[in-house]
Amino acid sequence: MKNLADEGRNHLDALAAANGAFMRTYPGERAARQPVHTFYGGAHLFKADTIPRLGELALRSLESYAPDPATLAAGVGLASALLGDGDLAALYERVRAKLQREPIEDFRLDFEDGFGARPDAEEDAVAESSAREVASALAAGRLSPFVGIRIKSFGEEWKNRGARTLGIFVDTLLAATGGRLPDNFVVTLPKITVAEQARAVVRLLEILERRHGLPAGTMRMEIMIEVNQALLGADGRSPLPGFLAACEGRCSAAHFGTYDFTASCNITAAYQSMAHPMCDLAKGLMILAYAGTGIFLSDGATNVMPVGAHKGDALTPAQLVENRAAVHAAWQISHRHIRRSLEGGLYQGWDLHPAQLPVRYATCFAFFREGFAQAAERLRNFVEKAAQATLVGEVFDDAATGQGLLNYFLRALNCGAIDIDEIARTGLTRDEVELRSFAKILAARRARLGAS
Questions:
Q1: Residue 11 placed within a domain
Q2: What is the largest distance, in Å, between two alpha-carbon atoms of the chain?
């Protein structure tokens, strides 16, 4: 009797094209660093010293409203019992160090909601001036690791204005930097409704690349999911995969816009929240559509700002107490939202105010450190068993689980929740961690074990 695989060879060979197309669409999670947040600020407000100045304001908020580890834990709502006093103190120092060293991971100069509708001459002027400020910050080493601009939507009303701003900003920036784009520069397209909007942005980016002699594909973009029609089209299908395909390989991330989305669902302002069930549905659909594609996903923002009602330096003791209570209440809302995102597999969100930065980092650091010991032991065992299996010729096909475990530590390392030296508890060396790929780590282990 023939081997079934041989007898059915034509049918199996016919699968090659379909399997290849699937793997190109779903290459797996990207090993590159993902920022834990994007800080949105009006483009008209951006100056060359904005990033360090925001860090100073965030540090002042931490010192004013959480001067010690216990107050931070109580004010944010951290489950300090899961950390222990010693680790809580270490976490506090990590938050402080982060605000001093790298207060903003990703900054978006906003020409949309954070800028508003202004006369063309005014937006033209801001596009030029803000681009020069970005160039100055780049030259001074004061930019965040990730940076970009959010243009206006490419709906019929704003498409020309969005394109005009994009051109002025990029032309001015490259003229000021001698043709150098900042690392991880992106153009964010908000309120996408049809795939053709993303495709139009791609064509404009191609024009800019040719104009400035940039290699093809240099300029990257993000899309924002902010209306219900972006999730369910008139034909009853999800437009999300089509949006990504229309970006033609340039899309690095998809962000969720909480408040525009809930408004598009006719939810009144009082109930518009990151925790609304409709937001959970939307983000679940985004995860289903984009998991394995290699693009990053980001949740939205908490719109309750952690600021006190009383201003000035000569406040009464009662006013100081009221201010602290207001800030802590807002921090606790942010903490619940951020924690909910992390537990749901969304490792990035938005921040809108410097006083939100302490809770952003405290929550992220706590999330990663709480499960560190258990995850480290699991990864150590997993890598050792996988390497041994491949060495003796056994099939090991659970690389996705290994990469998922590795990504946990890469995310923790990237944001500052853990140090490179702590990675040793996973059984990985510094060189292996820098590979950022479970498959590459196994190949290196196999080569090393085979040579011994």
A1: no
A2: 93
